[in-house]
Design brief:
Blueprint lengths: L5 H10 L1 E4 L5 H17 L6 E3 L2 H4 L3 H11 L8 E10 L21 E2 L2 H6 L5 E9 L8 E4 L1 H7 L1 H7 L5 E5 L4 E5 L5 E5 L17 E5 L3 E4 L7 E8 L4 E3 H5 L3 H9 L1 H13 L4 E3 H11 L9 H16 L1
Antiparallel strand pairs: 1-10, 2-3, 3-12, 4-7, 5-10, 5-12, 6-11, 7-8, 8-9, 13-14
Helix pairs in contact: 6-7
The chain binds 2-oxoglutaric acid (AKG) and fe (ii) ion.
Length: 317
Amino acid sequence: MYELTEAQAAQVDKRGFVYIPGYLRESDLELLREGFRLALERDPNNDYFRIMPGEVLSKFQPMVQAISDSIRGAGITVDGVYGGGLYFANYAARPNPESKKKARGVAIGWHQDHDSYYMWQDHHNYLNVYIPIDKPDPDRSNLTVVPFDNLKARAPELCEKLLGRGAATGWTSNHGGFISDDERGGVIGRFDFDLAEIEETPSLKAGDLLLLRGDILHRTQDTLTQRVAVSFRLMNGQATISRKKLATGGFVKSRLMYNGRGAYKAIIRYFQRNRKNTVPIAEMAHYLGNIGPTPPSKVRPLTFVALLAWEKLRAFF
Ligand SMILES: O=C(O)CCC(=O)C(=O)O
Ligand SMILES: [Fe+2]
């Protein structure tokens, strides 16, 4: 029941996304809503996304399996959820009373995701299974995307450069703009038209699926209504991540790694302790799952700066 048709899988290959109305049944939605209530209580970070409790995530294994099987024909290899399931609320949902941080809602401009690319390093074999669970108005508070076929027709070179990658930000005006390279620094490419001319915003109701490849440009449509969506992140557990690629990159990458230094320190230490230059995604995700989330406040700034500097130096040789 969770399978995609061949035509739907082909859309993900050609356009970078597919929209499938009425994907989840009400009982699935209820489970996910209960998971959100739990996540609000448990996640101490009160960040703009919340981590889905493991016991809720595991109930969706049949869905993950069905999507993985049906997307293979479209040249995308994924086999499970690594790095967890996430909840995105676009409003400041009830903060955890123990946290000193104020809750904030998600409202992001044009981007390809950053941390998932820094950590897992491939956004082609990477699916974002995005499903609203609370959605008062189908026409508001969606995810807006730049379909790859539309972009290819207007800016073929830029389109080519965005394929398979992540960690990028769109800086736009009515006349054009550019996409910054938040992996290496600098600019990926420029365009001389308004992205609004080629963007698309599927109208989503609770339970509708928006299946996105990790490399598609996307943004929050608006925060005019209060919406919560789940976002399962599917990857290929056999693919490896590289210690050297993690360490290299520009200033924006270093700053974002510093902001998330709890997780990045754990990953670097794992490479160091095991004396490995590459580690399969499944192995690293398993390790991170076992140690649990490490808030950045638990890692001293200087410790992390020194650790990253050492890794950068080492990657040089
Ligand atoms: O929910 C949103 O508005 C943004 C979500 C997003 O950027 C993502 O799923 O990667
Ligand atoms: Fe995103």
